[in-house]
Input
Amino acid sequence: MRRVVVTASTRMELSQLIEAASAQPASGVGHLPLWRGELAGQELFIAQTGMGKANAACAATVLCERLTPHLLINTGCGGAFPGCGIGVGDIAVADAECFADEGVLTPDGWRGLDIIGIPLYEGKGERVFNRVPLPLEPARRAFAHAAAEGFAAALGPFLTVSTCSGTSRRGEEMLRRFPGICENMEGAAIAHVALIYGVPCLEVRGISNMVEDRDMSRWDLKRAVGEVQRFLFTLLKCPDALFGG
Output
């Protein structure tokens, strides 16, 4: 039986999926709030990581060590960059992740981690500095499944930050560093740990806001997390869309 692990930073980003999958509280994975169920012949674990890169990396390490998943799915909400083709309530699928604000501030401006010359990860013929690769086939299958199920979706790189971009100017600065469609606070850390352990990783987020001058009256967290959990449930019920036919 294949084992799929789904993570998000908060309970709100997981609660509808837990209910839809009839997952029950489980233990044995350290400090993490965890639920277990079975869906379409797959063993499903759903884990709440906590917010930010440190919590996400810690959780992903524990999950990879103790559960050895066949697929690790990171989800939750995120902010979409203007011009990426999606808006609030839509679905974003990552084909790569970036540590978008880790680097060096020089007299000539911000520079990425390659200026230091020490990669975050080195192995399997890869040297990873800011951009963390994700396996393309799971991302492409998820994107195709979203279209088939009638979800508005985009496929592209995600940017992970420690400080959310609360102004249009900051968002434009992030995009000058790395092209992307979605900003979040955990994804690159999850992808990094998955790469270390050789676990395929898929990241799918619901768009709660645009990356613009911060105005929470224009946000819709409830819709974002509801739509992405509804999408994930349809995806988890279709093993061919997750793993290929």
